[in-house]
Amino acid sequence: MNPLVELNLALILFLPWFTILAVLFWKFPRAPRGWQRTLFDSTSLLLAMAAAAGGMYWSMENADPTFGHMWQQVLATSVSYGLFLLVVTLALIVRWRWLRGFSSSTTAPANGATGALS
User: Is 11 exposed, middle or buried (0-12, 13-18, 19+ CB in 10 A)?
Assistant: First the structure.
């Protein structure tokens, strides 16, 4: 196998799945969509891919060679996928809280009520 392909095999194999997850992350929720959200989503996806690639390269370098090349690929795939999901999940939580705060501030009561039950 070509050494470059072997080094990047985990990323190559998961690229279609990463693409599906990235599209879902980008598309939903549909609103609000402004330049801040576009910047946040873009940065989050770039960080997720960087973490996945970094984790893949780290695990290929640090996998125990006594178990053969297959173990390197298994570890690289697992670490890469886990880091991608971790970054996207954290970004989803941050974005959800950010958008929830945005929607509650735009739907504040007009009469000055604080929202507490009286």
Answer: buried
Residue 57: CB atoms within 10 A of its CB come to 17
| pTM score | 0.77
Query: Token digits for 80?
Result: 């890469």
Task: Please enumerate in sequence order all residues whose Cβ is within 8 A of that of 21, keeping only pairs 6 or more positions apart, or say none.
Answer: 84, 85, 88
Q: CA-to-CA distance for 61 and 84, rounded, in angstroms? A: 19
Note the pLDDT tens digit of each residue in 10-67.
788 888 999 999 999 999 877 777 888 889 999 999 999 999 999 999 998 888 888 8
3-class SS of residue 1? coil
Can you tell me the distance from the alpha carbon of 74 to that of 17, in angstroms, rounded to the nearest whole number? 16
